[in-house]
Specification:
Number of strands: 15
Number of helices: 29
Radius of gyration: 32 Å
Shape: elongated
Helix content: 40-55%
Distance between the termini: 80 Å
């Protein structure tokens, strides 16, 4: 394709309302198109992009911020002249996000025709080769805001323009390649004493001089620097904060002026999306350096914290760990719970931690029933904007290492993981981290509750549980009503007077975490009365799971503890047991196997339960 034909088609597409053609000839725009091509949905004002959905979990807000930055840069806002830098703790997915952007960009250019001048070592933007008056027209008439009239192509293209009419310049399709360093490159600072500018802007080639015979011929330059290899696409800076001052100055010019200066060949403009990532200590050390003030002003910083969503953390751990041997389903739960606790314990009060986990859990649909919406928004805003929240704690990699090691030897139970967490973070922790001790204690209690729920399901059978809980709720509602209203309670069949079961009410109060006095019970009763009346008017049936999940769980725990008192002897594997007890154990184990336990891990969990029976009963 000739440049004049490209230009005419470019104008024609803009006149048809096709903004994508503008984005395709801008590095940020190409990345933006590669993301939105995969689709997205919107939830609570945040766009959730399909491009990241199977790779990055729990960071939708921060990914949306990144895409917003890219979109604004693609439209020629001043962010176009900034280096995007992702700052967060180790293992928070910073480098993974950049890797995904690279893959998306490479894939997009393979599926769409993107043009560059033939034989151009920089794959220059064709718009840069247009005469100044046409560039002015594109910018001011057609809204190609990122294009400046004074932009110059590389020295090789400048030579081609001197020797040929611009209209006749031949363009060819290009495809980006991560492996080939075409449109996608990576810069990592080396030894400051031995690393020169060539890693960024290439160097003079003696070998090429022997071919072209003239040291003023721009073709004798090796255009192999990171800024040249990544032209038209992404240049990733690894450990940018460790770069020497001379390199920072080159990057300063490349970001602010979109320009590279070559010795003997002058300056020319590049079209690149510059992105880097680092952790907080390195960033803090960097901004304290007196020689980085101008460079700091060219950075656009986006926080990438640890994920705080419990359900998302389970997905992260499952993605990182390849099961060599069987792992029971509670392994991932206990690992995720401990990880999230370590990330929030320094930012919130101990008594609020469980509530905080519920608020951030993306799959917890009942959180709004227990928390004020303004309180929820305030807590989430703090996570989104405060650089302290979510920036410390245990990395997913650390947990993945633990599970991978355990899985290498034998089947893994949640009890094995709990012991390993104790060994790694409590027993052999040289710093004796007080917060981690608290996290461990809470995780131990969490696991006990999860085992309680699991075994009760297996013990009672899944079909019968809800029926028994509904009967318990009816009993609770009747006895609570009689207590609050100070009325007599009668058997619906015989009509005989029944004494209010104070022991039963107190037990449920305990599971609901309320004080067993008249005022608290009165508030609970009228809440239930209001809800049941409202549902009746709407012709709806009360569902404890949906409308009163805290009551459902409280009644379930109560029922289990009553049942376990009867069946506890059956769980003791160290003493001879009757055939009836053996049958009970077999039913429990078989039901546990249906939800992902093996024979061995089910028995480990049951033995742990027996050894800790006092805590449950």
């Amino acid at each position: 394709m000739r440049l004049v034909d490209f230009y005419n088609n470019f104008i024609s597409e803009i006149q048809k309302g096709n903004r994508n053609i503008i984005y395709q000839y801008n590095a940020h725009g190409l990345v933006y198109l590669s993301i939105i091509e995969k689709g997205y949905k919107e939830k609570n004002g945040i766009k959730i992009y399909n491009a990241f959905k199977d790779e990055i979990f729990g960071l939708d807000y921060f990914l949306d911020r990144i895409v917003r930055f890219i979109y604004s840069a693609a439209n020629g806002q001043d962010t176009f002249k900034r280096i995007l830098i992702l700052i967060g703790p180790p293992g928070s997915s910073k480098s993974s996000i950049v890797s995904i952007l690279k893959v998306l960009l490479e894939e997009y250019t393979k599926n769409h025709e993107i043009y560059a001048p033939k034989d151009c070592p920089n794959r220059c933007n064709p718009l840069f080769l247009l005469p100044r008056n046409l560039k002015e027209e594109l910018k001011y008439k057609y809204g190609v805001n990122y294009l400046e009239p004074f932009y110059l192509p590389c020295p090789v293209c400048q030579k081609t323009l001197r020797e040929n009419p611009w209209e006749e310049i031949e363009l060819v399709p290009i495809q980006f390649s991560r492996l080939g360093n075409i449109g996608i490159s990576t810069y990592a600072p080396g030894d400051p004493n031995s690393t020169d500018d060539s890693v960024l802007i290439g160097n003079f080639s003696i070998a090429k001089l022997s071919i072209y015979k003239n040291d003023s011929d721009p073709r004798v330059w090796n255009y192999t620097g990171a800024l040249q290899s990544g032209n038209r696409g992404i240049v990733e800076f690894v450990e940018i904060m460790k770069s020497k001052t001379e390199h920072l100055n080159i990057l300063l010019t490349a970001s602010q002026d979109k320009m590279i200066v070559l010795k003997n060949f002058g300056a020319y403009n590049i079209d690149t999306f510059l992105i880097s990532h680092t952790n907080i200590p390195e960033y803090q050390n960097f901004i304290q350096r007196s020689d980085t003030e101008a460079f700091r002003d060219r950075l656009f910083v986006i926080k990438i914290p640890y994920n705080l969503s419990y359900s998302s953390e389970i997905k992260i751990i499952k993605k990182l760990v390849k099961e060599i041997n069987h792992m029971d389903p509670l392994v991932y739960k206990v690992s995720a719970y401990f990880s999230i606790l370590t990330r929030i314990i320094k930012s919130y009060k101990k008594e609020d931690l469980e509530k905080i986990i519920q608020i951030f859990d993306e799959e917890n649909e009942n959180v709004n029933n227990n928390s004020d919406s303004s309180d929820i928004e305030s807590i989430k805003k703090e996570y989104y904007e405060d650089f302290k929240v979510g920036m410390s704690g245990v990395s997913p990699r650390t947990i993945a290492n633990i599970l991978s090691e355990l899985s290498s030897f034998d089947e893994v139970s949640c009890i094995d993981v709990l012991k390993k967490i104790y060994d790694n973070f409590i027993k052999f922790n040289q710093n004796k981290n007080v917060e981690y001790n608290e996290c461990y204690s809470m995780t131990e209690k969490f696991l006990e509750n999860e085992i309680t729920k699991t075994v009760i399901d297996a013990l009672l059978g899944y079909d019968e549980i809800d029926k028994e809980i509904d009967l318990l709720f009816r009993k609770y509602y009747d006895h609570l009503g009689a207590y609050v209203n100070k009325t007599e309670l009668k058997d619906p069949v015989t009509g005989k007077k029944i004494e209010i079961d104070e022991t039963f009410l107190s037990s449920i109060d305990k599971h609901l975490k309320i004080v067993s006095d008249y005022e608290h019970r009165k508030n609970v009763y009228f809440r239930l009365l209001s809800l049941t009346s409202s549902l009746l008017l709407q012709n709806q049936t009360l569902s404890l799971k949906k409308h009163l999940p805290e009551f459902y769980n409280a009644l379930k725990e109560y029922m289990f503890k009553e049942k376990i008192k009867l069946f506890a002897p059956s769980l003791n594997f160290d003493i001879p047991i009757s055939d009836e007890s053996k049958n009970i154990i077999r039913i429990i184990i078989e039901n546990m196997k249906k939800i992902g336990f093996s024979e061995k891990t089910a028995k480990i969990v049951l033995k742990y339960m027996n050894d800790n029976i006092i805590k449950f009963a």
